[in-house]
Structures are given as structure tokens and as C-alpha cells.
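Example record

One chain of 314 residues, shown exactly as stored in the release files.
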Amino acid sequence: MAAGNSLNHGDGDGSEASLTSLEVRFAKSPLSGSRRRLIREILDNHEQTFFLSSREMAKRYKVDAATIVRSVQALGYERFADFAADLRRHFVKHITPYTVLKAATQEKRSVTDQVQHCLERDVESLSVLRSSLEANRVVELAKRIHGARRILVVGVDLAASLAWFLAYGLTPLGFDAEAPVGSTGNLQHKIDLLTEKDLLVAISFGRCLRETVEAVQRAHARGVPTFGITDSSTTPIALHCDDHLIVSTSSPSFTGSYVAPMALLNTIIVACAHLRPKRALAMLSRTEQEYRTGTRWYQDPLRRKGTNNNKKKR
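Predicted C-alpha cells for this chain:
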């Protein structure tokens, strides 16, 4: 994944010795010999399987897609997507940008195929978000944002781009939103200014970066409400925040993908705008004239009439 995600720096949640949900399911499942061997192979080759679709996984192990789906269902999963999410969560603490790229290079794909595969995975992530997102929970977050005096959005490394986007999108709507940049000390000072009337939104995925998790813990110590955006209900961000939304960053790219997280942030901004549309329109009207006629946009210098003719006469 990307910096700010599980595949780069950052400490885990300290539960590395405990069994994951996938391990428990596999140990307790009444899988037949052939299905058990199939799942075992998938688990043992996690670096090459965690980002595969059911069709691609079936092709890899020379079985039909139905066999993959039935084996996954025998583990207790209703959908392959649920199994894939658990497979990624199970191995995410072992995955690094190097291992992701190494696994991708071992696939027999051309560069063009790699590009197409990356786009297909992004489309799948958007599809999962569309089918699984509870819109009412986004509206609830929008209500929290409306009720907050200040909103501090925390994202570290590449996740800082998400934090900045959300804060920037909220500001024109009249919210006092900020995504702190700079040192850890600067972030801590910003948190220390918050009260129970404010809101801290933390964005991190996988094992989650230590600085982001500690920001949530510091806010909690001050009685500040917290909300997380992460990729699993078992991540440190999900466990430490008051509430959270889940979105996938899964991708065959060593950087991970923020396509689905960006889509989720857009829904949050839309919800905030339409929760109180008159307020939003009033705020945006302040810059309407500038957008239409101001110096915000680039304009080519006007050419004086006759310039070319004068040059020719000279």
C-alpha cells in the first residue's frame, strides 16, 4: 500500500501473536481434503493471491471460479469479497511495497495488462464501496461535522493527501477545517487546542501509522470526539476512534489505491453541503463573482490590433 497505509512504515496494534478471523475460520471449518488444500495454498502464497479476483484465483490454481466460491462459502463467507478482505487483513502486516511489486512482476502480464489489471481493481473497489456503504452513516458524520466548532483532519505520509482534500472541501462550505502539516509537534499542538466541541477525523489503513493512532489517543485524553476512515473494523484506527467508515485501498500497485477513499470523501463533502443547502449556497455565493470574473483563472494577454502589421512595416 501507500505511505500512510499498512504497507509502509508504522507500528501495528500489538496483536500480532493473536489469531486472525481467517485463521480461526480455517481451523474450525469442515473443509474437505481438496478444498482444504486449495485454501491452504492460497494462504501459503498470500503475496501472489491477496489482490486476485475469484476468476483470477481460479485460473491460477487451475479450477473453475465456482470451486473457489464454494470453498470460500465453506469457510463461512457469504461473498468472495468478504473472504478477500479477510485475506488482505490477515497478511497486511507482512506485506511491504517490495513484496507487492515482486508479486506483480512474477505474474505473466505485459505492461499493458498490468495497467488494465490496476484499473480493474480500482473499479472493483468502487463497486464494493457502492454496494456496502451505508449512506445514513455518511449523513451521521456530516451531522457531526456540522455540530463541531473545529474539524481537524489527520493523515500522515501519502494519507496526508486525503486529509488535505477533505479539509479543503469542507472549508468553502464554512467549516473551520484543517489538515495539519509539518512536524509531530505541530500536530500535537493543534490537538491540544481542541475541546469536546470539536472533531478529529483520522485517516489511516492496515496496521495504521503510529503518529495517526497516537493523535486519536491524544484527542481522546482531552475528551475530543474522534472519527476514523480506514479499511477494516479491526484496524487500530477503527478500534480507537468513536466511530469509523470502511473503504478499501487494495491494489496490485505497490502504492496502494486511493480511488475508493477519494470517492468516500466526496460523499462526505456532498452530505455536508446538502444537509443544510441554504447555508452551503450562502457560503459559496461569497466567491461566486470571483469564480465568474475574477483573476482566479488564467487568461491570455490581449493582442493589440495592428501589432503584426506594425512589425511588417518596420
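Notes: The first strand starts at residue 151 and ends at 155.
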